[in-house]
């Protein structure tokens, strides 16, 4: 039994980078996991990604072989959202579009029990907007995990306008049972805390690169050695995914109309070119693939 006694089964909607990572940490923590996606090929990729990630952790001595096999056995996949009906918590990690998320949450609310925790992994969209079409909006909360989920410790718990105290407390206990440290955002402005800070910081770094003032390497070095950051802003952008930051920046800009949040042209061009960072093998740096196909540390810009 896990620390969060009222949660035994976790549903995850969306099997991409974030969804597969959330499914992995939940399974490692001892929960039964139902991983949903509309495409069988996406589910297959997710299971492959999880298997590779678990074995990397085992090679580093962070998991035993039996831990790896037990975690894998706890994960089942499905293309039917109805198969998540008996979940005790459902975390949505689908495409970062409000209309898409609203549809998912409306369908989930009609399927699951009235007391089930419904969480969104959105990086920037206000939870109030996502919950607006849900029966029982008090049980909808933001749980913003960070990529890669098995490695990053932070989880941002975001309260929507109608999210009640019990939901926030349950979401926090659940995240902590996954080994995460939480902050609570009490007003769900677009971008919350972390995305607003990151977008403003990264956008300025992008403008410095775009204008030829400094190279990505020198900007990252300045932030690591001058500010004590573990990673510079361009390396962080590559790790998070240029497309993810572009969506977050656009969402915050549309909500605030503050030009400091508008995605710079260099970011738009790189996303259009498919230069998304580690997950595509190239962003501001290039990432040679390991034998298992995963991206390694940057080799060059």
TrEMBL record:
Check the record and name the Gene3D superfamilies matching this protein.
N-(1-d-carboxylethyl)-l-norvaline Dehydrogenase, domain 2, NAD(P)-binding Rossmann-like Domain
Q: 3-hydroxyacyl-CoA dehydrogenase NAD binding domain location, by residue?
A: 9-188
InterPro entries xref list: 3-OHacyl-CoA_DH, 3-OHacyl-CoA_DH_NAD-bd, 3HC_DH_C, 6-PGluconate_DH-like_C_sf, 6PGD_dom2, NAD(P)-bd_dom_sf
Record GO biological process = fatty acid beta-oxidation
Q: Output the superkingdom of the source species.
A: Bacteria
Its Enzyme Commission number(s) read 1.1.1.35
- Which parts pass through the membrane? none
What pathway is it annotated to? Answer: Lipid metabolism; butanoate metabolism
- Domain named 3-hydroxyacyl-CoA dehydrogenase C-terminal: residues: 191-287
Keywords for this entry?
Answer: Oxidoreductase
Site Important for catalytic activity: which residues?
Answer: 144
The GO terms describing molecular function are: (3S)-3-hydroxyacyl-CoA dehydrogenase (NAD+) activity; 3-hydroxybutyryl-CoA dehydrogenase activity; NAD+ binding
NCBIfam families linked to this entry: PRK07819.1
State the family named in the UniProt similarity comment for this chain. Belongs to the 3-hydroxyacyl-CoA dehydrogenase family.
Name assigned to this protein: 3-hydroxyacyl-CoA dehydrogenase
Taxonomy of origin reads: Bacteria, Bacillati, Actinomycetota, Actinomycetes, Acidothermales
